[in-house]
Design brief:
The chain has eleven helices and no strands. With 265 residues, it is an all-alpha fold. The longest helix is centred in the first third of the chain and has 34 residues.
């Protein structure tokens, strides 16, 4: 009886947590279809706010900047972070604790400190050499700097989990460095590289503070646009943007689940 009561209480707690997590999202989705310009009462079902989004040039520009920023910075961080992770593994026998600290530093540093320091650095370079003024390029560089540690640590953890004799076996089979990278390292690291890329892309799309301090006047991203719109009050248009983002994440999660199930069978 006590065990049954415990399981019922645990089940109830689970449902409460799920409601706490997802009811706010459900409210956002619900009010995105509100025909009235209000998030306080529902006046009727309408798609007017989605139609307004389609014809909102500022929003489309912000979305384009977000995608360019996220994809470009994630690819650059993937290449650089993979090389750093591999170097950390190859030289793990050396005392490189200070290097690990430097890798972790951008992860634990507050975003506002990181964003302001990046902004001050770019302004100093721009005053000295007339380059790296606030633009999409400075945002890409800033994003790459905080994405690299995540990629490096993911790749390093994957290398640590490998049997060290595999590297020696590849050499014993007279595989050239290019062949070892193509036929051994890349297939072995593929899951980690995919995970690192999507994590970097998610961090980039989600970032506001660092982007805000390093963006140019014409390079607003989606989080910056939403922040500016919310300052005028939360409208069903903002709810529509959030609903589309929730839908995109949900579709990506479902596709990933289906892909994993198909791969297991």
């Amino acid at each position: 009886m006590k065990r049954d009561a415990f399981h019922r209480g645990l089940t109830l707690f689970w449902w409460v947590v799920m409601a706490f997590l997802y009811l706010p999202l459900a409210v956002i989705v619900f009010y995105s279809f509100n025909s009235a310009n209000s998030s306080a009462y529902f006046a009727g079902f309408s798609l007017r706010w989605y139609d307004k989004l389609i014809h909102n040039d500022q929003l489309l520009d912000a979305l384009g900047n977000t995608l360019v920023l996220g994809i470009t910075s994630s690819l650059l961080a993937l290449v650089i972070g993979t090389l750093i992770g591999y170097g950390m593994y190859r030289h793990r026998a050396r005392k490189l604790g200070w290097l690990i600290v430097l890798i972790y530093l951008p992860i634990v540093m507050p975003d506002i400190v990181f964003g302001i320091s990046e902004m001050a650095f770019f302004i100093s370079i721009d005053r000295q050499f007339g380059i790296l003024g606030p633009s999409l390029l400075t945002m890409i560089i800033a994003h790459v700097t905080f994405q690299i540690p995540f990629v490096a640590l993911i790749v390093y953890s994957r290398f640590v989990g490998l049997d060290p004799t595999l590297f020696e076996a590849a050499k014993d089979l007279y595989a050239s460095p290019f062949q070892r990278a193509r036929f051994f390292l890349l297939p072995t690291l593929k899951p980690s590289l995919i995970a690192a890329f999507f994590l970097s892309f998610t961090l980039s799309v989600d970032d506001f503070v660092i982007s805000f301090f390093n963006a140019g006047p014409e390079n607003a991203t989606l989080p910056i646009y939403i922040w500016g719109a919310i300052r005028r009050g939360v409208s069903p248009e903002i709810n529509a943007i959030a609903t589309l983002m929730i839908g995109a994440v949900l579709i990506a999660a479902i596709l990933s689940l289906l892909f994993n199930r198909q791969k297991q069978h």
